[in-house]
Design a protein that fits this description.
The protein is built from three helices and two strands. By secondary structure, the chain is mainly alpha-helical. Strands 1-2 form a two-stranded antiparallel ribbon. Helix 1 packs across helix 3 and helix 2 crosses helix 3. The chain is globular, with a radius of gyration of 12 Å. The two termini are 15 Å apart.
Amino acid sequence: MTNRSRSLDDLVINTYRNPHNRSLTRRETFVLGWFINNTKGRTYEDMAKDCKLSIEQCKNAVRDLMDIDLLRWG
């Protein structure tokens, strides 16, 4: 087993997840859309620039999307 560091490129969208118990926030929606349109070479810096959010806001949105299983390690 390899101990390589995970990157944003390793995250995949869980298309089978339906977050019916809550709506996505504005930030989560922007970040999820960004993941759909950017499949390689993902960085928080690019995400922040494209989504017009701070890097910390992007990290929190990614964490929140992982918490509700819309993003997961692939």
